[in-house]
Amino acid sequence: MSEIERDRFGRPLIYNPETEKHHAYTRVTTIAETQGDRYHLEKWLQRQVMYGAGIDPSLVEFARLVPDNSAKENKATLNDLVEQAHAAAKSSQRADDGTSLHDILHQTVLGNPVEIPAKWGRHVKEFQRVTADWTFLCNEQMVISDAHKYAGTPDAIVDIPGVGVVIADWKTGSSIELGIREMVSQLSMYAHADWLYEHDDDLGRRPMPEVSKSHGVIVHLDSQGGGALTSHVVDLEAGWEATLRSLEIRAWRRKKLGHLSETMDDGDPVEQWLRRRIMRLSANEQALPLLAKVLRPEWGSLTTGLDLTFEADMVKALDSIEDQLQLTFSESHPNMPKGRKKKNTT
After folding, report:
1. CA distance 210 to 84
2. Paired sense of beta strands 164-171 and 215-221, if any
3. Which residues have CB under 8 Å from 115's CB, separation 6+?
4. What are 206-255's pLDDT values in tens digits?
């Protein structure tokens, strides 16, 4: 089966039979992390960079060659050095182990033959013991919500005696304590999904089983531990409340300046006039190289603002380019006395 297509942000592209187009849906994990406390994770990532740099001191030497941390190309270089430091520190090893154990558990559920490393022998036996009387209705099947435009893949939908039909997920980190809030939010989104989704199907949608929206199950197996297993019934009603707040926060983050304010004063009229002249010339292929030659760093920039101490120099330079190319600018200088006839421009 082919991998589902994704956009440049990694969001799955979901086919809509009504529009006959694919639309990017937000990943369930992205929404679940909206309210997450990343303090401990960020501290761990910082420590791993220092640890990796200690293992490979050449990374520090390369970093010293970077002149600053503001230019785009320098940021890219430093980001690459950070990734190399994480690689040296083997930051992803636990995640890679967790993914491998996940794959083994999935194959075990399907009844497929799979080679089980000795270090995970007990993990698999414990998993088989706990799930022996579970009925697996779906395994690693993507689910989607058209209402909230999200998509994700629970490990399973299962019918557990005495518990009911629930979403179940396997967690293989060292602990679920710090991430439990995001995990419960994640499971609640799976439970509230509208459809099972398969991108290789013609329409891609099949009805969701009737799953519990009040509770789900998390099975915890530390991929680097001795194989001890714990299972937990989790509160999906609380998780869904948190999810709705996360969706509201994400909607709030999309608000822009124009949504939340009205401009009282958009800056010095003379500076704005100069900015408009520069922007007009920047859009002209012939004027752009001339503009690049005459602009001086001390004049400032469109991003940081123009220094009107150099207004006369800027006006002279812009006049020169416009005259040379026979270009016109329709606005008079803001301080031109009213009634004075301005130069005929367009």
Report:
1. 46
2. parallel
3. none
4. 999 999 999 999 999 999 889 899 999 999 999 999 999 999 999 999 99
pLDDT digits over 140-153, tens only?
A: 999 999 999 999 99
| Residue recorded with tokens 């600018």 | 329
> What's 183's DSSP letter?
H
Tokens of 24: 């990017």
Which positions ≥6 away from 159 have C-beta within 8 Å?
134, 135, 137, 165
Domain boundaries, the chain: 37-91, 93-253, 269-324
Cα-based torsion angle of the residue sequence 330, 334, 337, 338 in order, rounded to the nearest 10 degrees? 60
Residue whose token pair is 């799979």 = 114
Query: What CATH class is the domain 93-253?
Result: alpha beta
Strand 195-197 and strand 229-235: the pairing is unpaired
Single pTM value for the model? 0.78
Residue listed under structure tokens 């531990």: 225
